[in-house]
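Structure tokens please, single chain.
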Amino acid sequence: MREKLMQEFERIYGGTEDVRVFFAPGRVNMIGEHTDYNGGHVFPCALTIGTYAAARRNGMDTCRFYSMNFEHLGIIYADLDELVYDKEKDWANYPMGIIAKLQEAGIAVDEGMDFVFCGNIPNSSGLSSSASIEVLTAFACRELFGFEMDFVEISKLSQKAENQFIGVNCGIMDQFAIAMGKKDHAIFLDTADLSYEYAPLVLENAKIVIACSNKKRGLGDSKYNERRSECEAALALLQTKKDIKSLGELSEAEFEEIKDVIGDEVKIRRAKHAVYENQRTIRAVAALKANDVKTFGELMNASHVSLRDDYEVTGIELDTLVETAWTVEGVIGSRMTGAGFGGCTVSIVREDCVDNFIQTVGETYKNKIGYAADFYVVDIGSGPVELN
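Here you go.
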């Protein structure tokens, strides 16, 4: 990939002197969905697929962005003193947002850069291609300009770019999982205070299989922000009964005791998901530590049911993938992953059953939905690196 990027960089910009190549992974969340902005726990891991970039400083006051995934858009230009969201600039708003937030933080990104990006994460799949670009850009800028910024700070800055520049009110999970990834480990993260621990994701004789529904979605246009505001409204009412800062502070019993104060059946279900999903995540990690993969899988299944019924973010595509998976031999657990409204599912499948799983789920999905899903048997990777 490094060689391919260098060749493309030379073709686009001419010459490869001082060009450096960087990589940042995608991520998959094993359990703990829509809890990150509700002060709960999540359990994501970085993947070995992700986003690559060849980059160098260009001596100008303009940044130039090119993506091998969107060749038809050509080079996208952005002046350093005019970094504002521009729909016409499409995907380049993500790296632009990072550079804008670095400037805002007082970091002297005072020279333009040339970038060639190339990703092998399915676009709009829910595997965080956007967060991968954000973290990658921040990491590349740090290396090219030589400023100090640790990976926790990079993840916070990337989230800020997504929230304030792109306009998606996401939590910290995606950026944190990508920046802090560790090979063969998932990250048990408490989003309330960013305390975390690495937990080995040892799945003896089993594999992680991601199924991409190929239903495109954009978080900004989806009901993502609506779900977040519903939870915030529910929290405000619960706070009249209990001194809490987030839904993640409540146990199931505490929630059941005071939920009626919310007074709206839909908002009760939204808050219920946030509370119960957080507790599921805590129990799932405990099960994994006890080598109880069976219980971990059952909690994944329960997570999907809650996302389907209480949070209503699945849809026919994701439900078809998951509900079919549940019927296939060797499936330990399966659920939607990511924000929902399309995107991907994640399943733990016995190694000797993976081929049958892909064939069975794939055929059922295509027959019902009318187009094919894509399947990826993935490995757990580490965070951003420079490729020498």
